Amino acid sequence: MKFIDYIEPSNIELNIPFQSKKRLFEQLAIKMAENSKETRAIYNALVKREKIGVTSIGNGVGLPHGRCLDDKDIRIRIVRLTKPVNYESVDGIKVQLIVCIVFPKKTDESHETFLKQAGELFKKHKTFREIIKCETTKDVYQILLKES
Known about the structure:
Blueprint lengths: L11 E5 L4 H12 L3 H17 L3 E3 L2 E2 L2 E5 L5 E11 L9 E10 L4 H15 L1 H9 L3 H11 L1
Parallel strand pairs: 1-5, 3-6, 4-6
Antiparallel strand pairs: 2-3, 5-6
C-alpha cells in the first residue's frame, strides 16, 4: 500500500480560501464522500481526531485524518490554501498545505504505516516549497510521483 497509488490530479485542489478548520473539514468531507451519510461520517471523524490533538505535522502542512469508511478503501484529498493560516501547528509555522486522509473504521498496521509514509513525504521542506509554487494540479501530481 503506497501513498502515491491513492493520488490522482482530481484529488488535488489549489488556491482554496480558508475560513476555519470547521469549514475546511466540511469542504473536505463533501469532496471525499460518495453520499450524504458518508459526508457526515467523514466530517465527524476529522473533528473527532482533531479534538484528540492538532493534526499539523509542522513545516506548513496539516494532516487531518480519521477512521470512518465502511469499506476497506482509503481516500485522500490534497488542498493548497490561498495563503498560510493559523492551524495551531506544532512548530508555530502557519499551514498552507492540507493532506486529508480517511481510512476504514477498522484499521491495521498497514494503515499506520501509510499515515507515517504520508507524513514523511510532506514533511520534506523541498517538497512543500515545490508544491506551493505549482500552477496546476498535474504539476503537484508530478512532484508527488517524483518524491514517492
